[in-house]
Amino acid sequence: MAWLSLAIWVPIVAGILLLPLGKPGQANLVRWLALAGAVLGLLVTLPLYTGFDTGTAQMQFVEKMPWIAAFNVHYHLGVDGLSFWFVPLTAFITVIVVIASWESITERVNQYMGAFLILSGLMVGVFTALDGMLFYVFFEATLIPMYLIIGVWGGPRKIYAAFKFFLYTLLGSLLTLVAVIYLYNVSGGSFDILSWHAQPLSLLEQTWIFFAFFAAFAVKIPMWPVHTWLPDVHVEAPTGGSAVLAAIMLKLGAYGFLRFSLPIAPDAAQEYAWLMIALSLIAVIYVGLVAIVQEDMKKLVAYSSVAHMGFVSLGFFLFNQLGMTGALVQMIAHGFVSAAMFLAIGVLYDRMHTREIAAYGGVVNTMPKFAAFALLFAMANAGLPATAGFIGEWMVILGSVQHSFIVGILAATALILGASYSLLMYKKVYLGDVRNDEVRALQDINAREMLVMVVLAVCVLYMGIHPKPFTDVMDTSVAHLLAHIAQAKLQ
């Protein structure tokens, strides 16, 4: 079975089929069909886990056929330990977002649900593409549905935010296209990414390629100082858009470093590791401090995402097993935790229509069940042991100490900052006496919202208590990538 193709095209086809169903009376039908498409998209990823061989770093579930024969472009798919978990994670978050958006979206429901399903398939395509041009097509195509989600269903400044999102990410990607074409020429007319890994390049060539890829991937993560688009986009995007953007789309850039920058330009990656570590630490510390003073809940969580993704880029450029595996674990954990944080903010926004922290206070008195879930997610965001947020950060800190004790100390400050902004927000919004009549009138979460919260809580706790299924898949591929980088240095 072509499981990877199914994981890509089932949600895309389901999304396209929803587009004609735009009559007012068809909204409920659209919601159920969208849920069916999203669940089916998740189900077709399950055989990937049962059939995955953790003992090899080779690509698995490979599919390859000619696409544009004149330029030797292939429809070439495959996953290894570096990319595997992002396929089911993308499908899972899509199901959660469809359920979470059930009542909050009332206009153009078919287009909204269709955009998310199409986006889901395109993002899976990015994680599974083994052809450089195919990767670039999927990578750029993800911008279109997200641009529409922000620009059509976003907040008061949605057009500005959508334009900023599109412009930042597109401009960075143009240099990536130049690098892809250059690699095609020097490799004798091949877009095969795995063959590029073995392509001998001078340090000068590697440096240009490294920074060309950096232009796209650093913006997408986003790394400091090209992170300024993210808070604006999160504030204006609808709740589902923020959840998918934080949980999955930021990971596209981080994954690009693993699949392109590190294996294709290993010498340049090591040459400029100091720069990447410095930028990552600035994101972890400075952006963490910025998060503390935010007055908008979404903006606070957006800045916290930049800080958490700083851990990811830091772990990659430590060049040790703990750091790189920890960074991958952090990517998956951040997918669960950030989605949970944004969806929790969405629950409050649906009731009060404000994200200002000052507008709340004492929510625990009127929404005790919801406040319990919000506390768990805030603790996970702060990196509490036994939650998903702890595992990856702890591994990266250990890897940082192996690399340099000073880097380890600086990285560890993130745990203090994370606790500061997460718990301060929780205290101001949820604890104390009820401050106003709007909070006094709040209703606790309904059965649908409870389902979303329970599922995310289970994921956050399971990964925090038993991360072995996640790390087992990664270990062999991480070791293989590190050996490839070390071998390049020896030569």
From TrEMBL:
Pfam families: Oxidored_q5_N, Proton_antipo_M. GO terms for cellular component: endomembrane system; membrane. Residues 67-122 form the NADH:ubiquinone oxidoreductase chain 4 N-terminal domain. The keyword Ion transport does not apply. Residues 131-413 form the NADH:quinone oxidoreductase/Mrp antiporter transmembrane domain. The chain crosses the membrane at residues 6-22, 29-49, 82-102, 109-127, 133-153, 165-187, 207-230, 242-260, 272-293, 300-319, 331-349, 370-391, 403-424, 445-465. It is a multi-pass membrane protein. One of its GO terms (biological process) is electron transport coupled proton transport. InterPro entries: NADH4_N, NADH_Q_OxRdtase_chainM/4, NADH_UbQ_OxRdtase, ND/Mrp_TM. It is found in: Endomembrane system; Membrane. Keywords: Membrane, NAD, Translocase, Transmembrane, Transmembrane helix. GO terms for molecular function: NADH dehydrogenase (ubiquinone) activity; NADH dehydrogenase activity; ubiquinone binding. NCBIfam families: NDH_I_M, PRK05846.1-3, PRK05846.1-5. Belongs to the complex I subunit 4 family. This is NADH-quinone oxidoreductase subunit M. The lineage of its organism: Bacteria, Pseudomonadati, Pseudomonadota, Betaproteobacteria, Burkholderiales.
